[in-house]
UniProtKB/TrEMBL annotation:
InterPro entries (UniProt xref): CoA-Trfase_fam_III (IPR003673), CoA-Trfase_III_dom_1_sf (IPR023606)
Listed name of the protein: CoA transferase
Superkingdom of the source species: Bacteria
Region Disordered, residue ranges: 1-23
Composition bias, Basic and acidic residues: 13-23
GO molecular function: catalytic activity
Organism: Mycolicibacter senuensis
């Protein structure tokens, strides 16, 4: 596959490991990755993969911590606890 891509002049290449994407020159050049401050410290991750002029995406902040909404969800379902 890589040879076929090279024949047409593309610079595409397979990622050997998902973590390799963070070092991809093209993805970094187009600004795909964002750094978000979390309680555990800054985390770099893929941001919004499309850029639309009238509805630009944005990263609002970090994901909720594990279990952050458990009590509220259980209460809404009527599953009681303490």
């Amino acid at each position: 596959m890589a040879e076929a891509v090279a024949r047409v002049g593309d610079t595409g290449r397979p990622a050997e490991h998902p973590g390799d994407l963070f070092d991809d020159p093209h993805l970094n050049a187009v600004g795909l990755f964002e750094t978000v401050d979390t309680p555990a410290g800054p985390v770099r991750f893929p941001g919004v993969p499309t850029w639309l002029s009238r509805t630009p995406g944005r990263v609002a902040g970090p994901a909720p911590e594990l279990g952050a909404h458990t009590a509220a969800v259980l209460a809404e379902l009527g599953i009681g606890g303490a």
